[in-house]
Amino acid sequence: MPARKANRDAGFQRSHRKLRALLGFPGIALALAAFGSAPAWAGAQKYEPLSASVQAALSKSVADARPPTSSFRSYREAADWLEAMSQRLARRIPDREYRLDLLRSVHYEATRAGLDPQLVLGLMQVESGFRKYAVSSAGARGYMQVMPFWVKLLGRPDDNLFEMRTNLRYGCTILRHYLDIENGDLYRALGRYNGSLGKPEYPNLVRASWHGHWDYAPPPPRPSPPANAPANPAAPVAPATPTLHPVPPGTPGRQAQSQSPAPLARNP
Fold it and tell me: Where does the UniProt annotation place the signal sequence (predicted)?
């Protein structure tokens, strides 16, 4: 079994490298065109009966209506990530405020589900091309192309899969569910998500999009100023005024200290 997984992973890597070598980046759009437009790869998750415990857990996860909080560890981390991702997404979503709202939601829902936000962005690009109202030929809906049977399966028939946060919540929860089924095997989990289990094209496209366009390395931390540094480094520091201590009478050199220095002799 481990040997089979190693062979599959090696094939995954070879196919991925071949795709990148043939197309390069920014060639993700060309890759999508080569294999069909983005909606052609839209999710067609297969209906599978769930055990009562799994169904209850998924339903609870989707229904969690806690008020959204920041999923970033610091303001600086949020500012750096949002600025970098916003620049990459600007061509597809020109409205800056909506774009930032979408990115915050992606980061929150991905982090909540234990997924890499960059992976989720790569999947969204392949699945829907970041079109909110995308509908596949199989009926999958929204940014993450969620199949409608999920809302009934999880006992929430009134959920609107075209609503941004709802779609991201379902999509991330479903992908997490498939990863758990496959014991962390992303190749097979992506195949399940797309309804193409065992075929390499879709997992390779997602991975190429993820690492080719959405990969992200945070900038190095800014150095902290030394503890004894002045509050305003640009302000000049006045030199210390020397202190003259009185010299007792009769001390050699006292007269020289109290008198002005003799002028230099002029050359005749």
Answer: none
Dihedral over Cα of 74, 79, 80, 81: its sign: positive
Per-residue pLDDT of the chain (268 residues; tens, 9 = 90+): 455 555 455 544 544 444 444 333 344 444 444 434 444 455 567 766 666 666 677 777 676 665 566 889 899 999 999 999 999 999 999 999 999 999 999 999 999 999 999 999 999 999 999 999 999 999 999 999 999 999 999 999 999 999 999 999 999 999 999 999 999 999 999 999 999 999 999 999 999 999 999 999 988 877 766 666 665 555 555 555 555 555 555 555 444 444 444 554 555 4
Phi-psi region of 131 (alpha: psi -120 to 50; beta: other; left: phi over 0): beta
Q: Parse the chain into domains and list their residue ranges.
A: 8-213
pTM of the model: 0.67
Burial class (CB in 10 A: 0-12, 13-18, 19+), 139: middle
